[in-house]
Amino acid sequence: MLVRKSYKINFDETVWKEERDQRKYMIHELETTRSLIGCTKREVIQKLGDEFNDDNSDRWTYYIGTKNVFGSKMYLVIYFGTNKTVFKIEKR
Fold it and tell me: Which residues face 92 on adjacent strands?
């Protein structure tokens, strides 16, 4: 019987910014704690870094790794509302 391990690590700004291959293990905490909800764009940049997202866009993406052996890329998508703060995040 194959046992699948679930890897989850606590979110760490430094690790997120410097070790991109570890990002997929931090997503669970970002989703469950909803720590980005209500953040401004400046606060998101402070936490996650600047990855060439357009300041005028209401949807930002951050690369979080590959999904499977076929190399499907995964992204964290952050949505900003009319008040210019995060109202939703999702993994794609």
Answer: none
